[in-house]
Amino acid sequence: MAHFAKLGVNGKVIAVHGLDNDQMLNASNVEDETVGQQRLQEIHGWPAAMWIKTSYNTRGGKYYDADGSEAADQSKALRGNYAGIGYTWDEDNAIFWPKQPHASWTKNTSTAAWNSPITYPSVLTYNTTWTQADIDNDIAPDGTSAGDARNNVVYDIFWDESAYQADNSTGWKAKKHDDSTVSWNGSAWA
């Protein structure tokens, strides 16, 4: 099954349709995108040039096998990302782009992804202790006492565009298990 993005105004993806591979065969019995585009025009009455083939298994400029692992053969990677409704077709770079997540983020055509202006934090976990409230709310494992070590708790990391706009040396924030928020200073959470 091949997939094609149906483009609307300004290259916006307005639908994604499947097409059986046998409907894309040219006179030499080889799959051909232009044959698929013509077939979709016949079926839907939408101009052939407004149908762009997209790969269901491509994201971030890489092709992934059905089990989700990165494929050894990257020649199948097609057009940066699998097109979704609301994505934009970038004809110059041959990439389908999702919506820009934040105003300060820029396109990285090498990875077909949006990059934040500040590198993603390198510290992803922290150590703390279990509280009596954790025990009372059945969050802590059985047999835990208040004050016991609670190691490698994962930060809930998010981008705060307004913080970045106010001070372009910050932007990454994280919530801790107690709902307190910390800011990334480039090397540590503060």
Report on this model:
- With 190 residues, the chain is α+β, with helices and mostly antiparallel strands.
- The chain has helices spanning 33-44, 132-136, 161-166, and strands at 2-7, 13-19, 51-54, 58-59, 62-63, 88-90, 95-97, 106-108, 113-115, 125-129, 149-154, 156-159, 172-175, 181-183.
- The strands form 6 sheets. Strands 2-1-3 form a 3-stranded antiparallel sheet, covered by helices on one side. Strands 12-13-14 form a 3-stranded antiparallel sheet.
- The protein is elongated and about 75 Å long.
Q: What's the average pLDDT? A: 96
User: Biggest sheet, in brief?
Assistant: 3 strands, antiparallel
Residue share in helices? 10-25%
Q: What radius of gyration results from the CA coordinates?
A: 23 Å
Categorize the overall geometry: elongated
Which structural class do you get from the secondary structure elements? alpha+beta
Q: List low-pLDDT spans.
A: none
Biggest sheet: strands side by side, in what order?
A: 2-1-3
Order of helices and strands: EEHEEEEEEEEHEEHEE
Give the terminus-to-terminus CA distance. 50 Å
Strand count: 14
Tell me what portion of residues adopts beta-strand conformation.
25-35%
Total helices: the number is 3
